[in-house]
Design a protein that fits this description.
Oligomer: homodimer
Strand content of chain A: under 5%
Helix content of chain A: 55-70%
Order of helices and strands of chain A: HHHHHHHHHH
Radius of gyration of chain A: 19 Å
Largest sheet of chain A: none
Shape of chain A: elongated
Largest interface: A-B, 13 and 13 residues
Chain lengths: 219, 219
DNA sequence: ATCAATACGGAGTGACGTTCCGTTTGTCAA
DNA sequence: TTGACAAACGGAACGTCACTCCGTATTGAT
């Protein structure tokens, strides 16, 4: 009730995004060697597991061992420990955001929306341990709030729009507001298990459905 | 705007206080040796300085050196690094709470109240760096929220009551509410210097004065 | 002045993040 | 297929940290 409410708030810090030119071209002329790619993947996979089971303070050596690579390899891929944490975070964001498209393809709009919001709830819940690290001021984390928003907001907007066009939910809900609200719910709700959070999220969804037919049908 | 709001909230976590029997007697039969007392004081003094200048992550050795004692002495007085941090925190709370009585003796009620609230504001501001540590889950910090409240709430209550009896402020303000409100103000207001916080606190004080004559004169 | 109790300092221990470098491997041109 | 080289590899080594241990010095009651 006191620690995590800041989590989603952290994600909402209004950073100016200069966005001048970051990644100029995808492949200038370099190919990624296959073993390097394998190492990076194994590392992210192992780090995700270790962070979730032993916390973000787990030693780098433990992650290297779990990934089956040497310590040197860890530091070539992620020069700082915090880069590894940021890497795991980004990968998780990617996975969660990607699920939105998949759910859209497999379910009717409202059901896809419902499932994704619960998926997002689980994402937040597993990232509780990261909240502390996120506040360390480490520059490796500086771009994370933007990354979070840049991926989740469009994903949810698409889901909302589809459900709205199907006449299932109202059209006047801001995707980002909803992300933050659920983020706060999910992050704070550790006290009595995930069941409580699930119920609260369902309640929010019912709120979205209420009045779907009576307003916002303009779009 | 996003990190510290949790600070005072942390302090408000509703911990059950069994309070069965903690400190059974002040002095069972042991006297504290003079050199030991000197070491403890020097350590707390040095730690306060180092934490404020170098952050709470400063190495223990640095504090020991500043205090002019050996590392062994640090660890005899404060078995864990976190105990030192907690010790500094408690001492600061004591000092701030004690100032309430002193200000009461030296000033008229309303002025004493005003000065102490600004004193408290400074306390919060210098404890920003501790917010992160406070969330580490370390058991050494578990009792801090209670300590915070147990010292500050009565202090402010006394100040408020005196001002109210003098007819200067209303009588329907909860001391703890006020502590939290100012805590949030002071902790969040780092962006544009302390001046902004000072003004906001003065505004709150004016709020207390408003209507002093028209209501709550029952007490 | 004596002496047991207590506190002292700081070398030592183990674990950590990170660097360095000799060795191995993947890729591609011949 | 083969050769060669850039790239990636593993892990010993380094510096720093929190914390432990123990021989020595200080204290205060007698």
């Amino acid at each position: 009730m006191f620690l995590i409410c800041e989590w989603a708030n952290c994600m909402s810090q209004t950073k100016e995004t200069p966005r001048t030119e970051d990644a100029p071209a995808k492949e200038p002329k370099k190919r990624v060697r296959a073993d390097a790619q394998r190492s990076t993947d194994a590392l992210l996979e192992a780090a995700k597991f270790v962070f979730e089971s032993s916390g973000v303070d787990a030693p780098v050596r433990e992650i290297a061992e779990k990934a089956g690579v040497g310590i040197g390899t860890v530091y070539r891929n992620f020069p700082k420990r915090s880069d590894l944490i940021a890497g795991v975070f980004r990968r998780e964001v990617d996975a969660c955001a990607a699920d939105a498209a998949e759910l859209t393809a497999q379910h009717l709009p409202l059901e896809a929306l419902r499932r994704w919001l619960h998926r997002y709830t689980r994402f937040i819940a597993t990232k509780k341990g990261l909240a502390k690290a996120l506040h360390s001021g480490d520059p490796a984390f500086a771009s994370l709030p933007d990354y979070f928003r840049a991926n989740f907001e469009p994903a949810l907007e698409t889901l909302l729009a589809a459900s709205h066009e199907a006449g299932e939910v109202r059209g006047d809900v801001d995707a980002y507001d909803l992300l933050r609200a659920i983020g706060n719910l999910a992050a704070a709700g550790g006290d009595d298990g995930p069941a409580h959070t699930e119920r609260m999220v369902d309640l929010l969804i019912d709120g979205l459905r209420f009045g779907a037919a009576t307003r916002g049908q303009s779009a």
